[in-house]
User: Fold this.
Amino acid sequence: MMVRLFFLVLTVGLLVACHDVKKQQQLEDVAALLSEMDSMQRVYNTHYTDTLPALLDRVRDVEREIKRGYGNDTIDLDMGRKLEAYRFISRNIGPVQELGSEYSERAAEERTDLLQLQKDIRAGSGDRSRYDNYIRLEKNKVTQLRVMLGDWFDTQQQCLANYRDYHVEMQAYALRLRSGKPIHSI
Assistant:
């Protein structure tokens, strides 16, 4: 009888210990996801710029001037390439802003979801057998957010680089077209 009681207590003790190890691993997994979310938020905050709408207005003004003064003989191949790179800005700033807003909203929601999952795991709330599935789902969502942030960052940086590289030249080109001066020297 004593032996059975001893094995029963030992079995219960092992089950509790295994549950605590699993619970600790789940908490560590969620903490790692929260840390990754914090890291991505720092990247977003560091590279977010609120000057994109003003930049877009300037680009569109220059594009409008070029369209008004454009003639088939006023553009050579090199200028056509530069103009195409410049147009990339106006085509992509709107989508970049939308992507940034969507990222920001989804990241806030994901952070809330992760904090709730962490709270549930600590308290042992809900269906504990599904915690691993929930963690896997949250990992997938964090991966999607990482990809979204990368797309936002790359496109925004390309827009800013194109603006920096071509705006002054395109503005001078538009002024020349408007003034009717020969374009060949550009």
About this structure: The chain has a mean pLDDT of 88.
